[in-house]
Amino acid sequence: MSQGTLYDKVWEKHKVTELPNGQDQLFIGLHLVHEVTSPQAFHMLEERGHEVAFPERTFATTDHIVPTTPEGRERPLNDPEAEEMLSALEENVDENGITFFGLESGKQGITHVVAPELGLSQPGMTVACGDSHTATHGAFGSIGVGIGTSQIRDVLSTGCIAAEKQNVRRVEVNGELGEGVYAKDIILKIIQELGVDGGVGHVYEYGGSAVRDLDMEGRLAICNMSIEGGARAGYINPDETTYEYLKGREYVPEGEEFEELKQYWESIRSDEDAEYDDVVEIDADGIAPMVTWGINPGQVIEIDDPIPAPEEFEARTDREAAEKALEHMDHSPGDTMEGYDVDVAFLGTCTNGRVKDFEVAATVLEGRQVDPDVRALAVPGSESVRKECERRGIDQTFIEAGFQWRQAGCSMCLAMNDDSLEGDEVCASSSNRNFIGRQGSKDGRTVLMSPAMVAAAAVEGEVVDVRDHFDTELPSGTNRAEEVAD
Ligand SMILES: CC(C)[C@H](C(=O)O)[C@@H](O)C(=O)O
Ligand code: SF4
After folding, report:
1. Nearest 5°: phi and psi at 356?
2. pLDDT tens, residue by residue, 219-248
3. EC number(s) (predicted)?
4. Architecture of the domain whose range is 6-163
5. With a 6 A CB cut-off, is 9 part of the ligand 1 pocket?
6. Interstrand relation of 300-302 and 290-292 (parallel, antiparallel or unpaired)
7. Atom of ligand 2 at shortest distance to CA of 34?
């Protein structure tokens, strides 16, 4: 039984009661809604004649199905199913008085990019969304949980869900990341070591000097992929980096109220002597850029390591998964990923679609050209990210290099819009899932990596080690430069 962790404290503060079935009734502080998973829940609500209990705690955006070109966004949308989902959401938010960051709002984007940048996600909250990547918000020191349709209905009508408390595993990442190595590489390393099911029954508390050193964008990328490691949620204790990021954002109170909030935020940090159900240590110094070789995020290696042979895995299921992966990806064991031909480069998503991600990739692209055989897509995670990149001229670096510069959405992460792989194309992708068919083509092949590595792959037309191929000094992705010694 763990004591004194942030998870325990935040859970206790939001627990309404214990239910007869042993689960807890948990109050949800922030409910995020998107067009794919909400229509049915609103419908269920209507059927029962219920109203939305806390419209002021509910915020909606549209992300999965939206086209990413200005022409594509003209209404009605070309795809009737997409139009139906979007219109349903528009009607539902209208009828229920819910704030909606729609296509015309200038604030539209991926749920897990929009809520953090507006300051909606704050430490010590419970955040729920009908989306498996809701753990992203844990980067602020909140409990973010992905929920299904009937739970969306429950949150809409009562502000609560029935949930089971999980065990807490501390994932302690100490040391310093080398140049060209980023938060994305840390989380891929964690998933490599603990497995895609390693987190089942747990939430992950990420800590250690390498995590403390990360900027908020990096922390968001790590928490985002908790679900890929099987964890129900993932979080990082809030600190000065968190508070500095939040200060001045649209939904964050100012002045005295901010100071009061900060006291609450400090109080919910895990205690020094908190007990964890499990502690795992990872050495950041040793991490190289990570790339997936297979068809789940755990089938991942360091860029210069050989692709494993099925016999190297102990469990039969892992051996079978490796065989399937080798066949789908057309690899032979012992090969490295370096030199694997790439047809598409995709930069964006709720993992790596933030300003810092584009900034890092732009450093790699500066003065260089995308390989003529590569289709390269830059899709900002939100319209605010797009505008900020344009204000800084980052978009020009992408465009001059030969990238298509798009509007915000999930895009080719899961191809619910027109952005899709074709045939057996290989995509160097900054996203979080490499399942077969994920990017819109059943034969398509996804290689997950950091934004710097995606940019390098776009230029070279193949998977490369960003550290070897470029002499530019790469931005670090940490807050060390700005940090005042403490
Ligand atoms: C469409 C949505 C429900 C889904 C999720 O739950 O995560 C999507 O965002 C994904 O990444 O696969
Ligand atoms: S960007 Fe990808 S992972 Fe994130 S919410 Fe959209 S589809 Fe899901």
Report:
1. -60, -35
2. 999 999 999 999 999 999 999 999 999 999
3. 4.2.1.33
4. 2-Layer Sandwich (3.30)
5. no
6. antiparallel
7. 5
**Is it true that the peptide bond before 306 is cis, omega within 30 degrees of 0?**
no
> In this structure, what DSSP letter does residue 233 have?
E
Is 484 a residue whose pLDDT tops 50?
A: no
Nearest-atom index, ligand 2, CA of 132: 8
Instruction: Indicate the Cα dihedral angle 467, 473, 478, 482, nearest 10°.
Output: 170
Q: What's the CA gap between 293 and 449, in Å, rounded?
A: 10
Alpha-carbon gap, residue 407 to 132, rounded angstroms: 23
Nearest CA residue ID for atom 4, ligand 2 = 350
The rounded Cα 481 to chain-centroid distance in angstroms is 24
Q: Is the CB of 177 under 6 A from ligand 2?
A: no
Report the run of H or E that residue 274 belongs to, with start and end. none
Q: Tell me the average pLDDT across 294-298.
A: 98
CA within 13 Å, CB half, 215: 17
Per-residue pLDDT reduced to its tens digit, 32-47: 999 999 999 999 999 9
Cα–Cα dist 178/265, whole Å: 31
- Mean pLDDT, to the nearest integer, of 169-176? 98
37 lines ligand 1 (CB under 6 A): yes
CATH fold of 290-469: Aconitase; domain 3 (3.30.499)
384 pLDDT band (50/70/90 cuts)? very high
Q: Are strands 15-18 and 24-27 parallel, antiparallel or unpaired?
A: antiparallel
CA 173, chain centre distance (Å): 19
Reply yes or no on domain 167-283 having CATH 3.40.1060.10: yes
pLDDT tens-digit profile of 260-292?
Answer: 999 999 999 999 999 999 999 999 999 999 999
Closest C-alpha residue for ligand 1 atom 7: 132
Give first-to-last CA distance, the chain, whole Å.
33
Rounded to an integer, the average pLDDT of 126-143 is 98
Instruction: Give the number of residues written for the chain.
Output: 486
User: Rounded distance, CA 168 to CA 191, Å?
Assistant: 16
Rounded Cα gap, residues 290 and 464, in angstroms: 11
Domains 6-163 and 290-469 share a fold: yes
The one-character DSSP state at 475 is: P
Q: For residues 128 and 33, what is the distance between their CA atoms, to the nearest angstrom?
A: 9
Domain ranges (residues) in the chain: 6-163, 167-283, 290-469
Task: Give the pLDDT score at 174.
Answer: 98
User: Phi, psi (5° rounding) for residue 406?
Assistant: -110, 180
Question: Phi-psi region for residue 450, left (φ > 0), alpha (ψ -120 to 50) or beta?
Answer: beta
The dihedral region occupied by 255, where left means phi > 0, alpha psi between -120 and 50, and beta the remainder, is: left
- Tell me if 34 CB under 6 Å of ligand 1: no
Q: pTM for the full model? A: 0.97
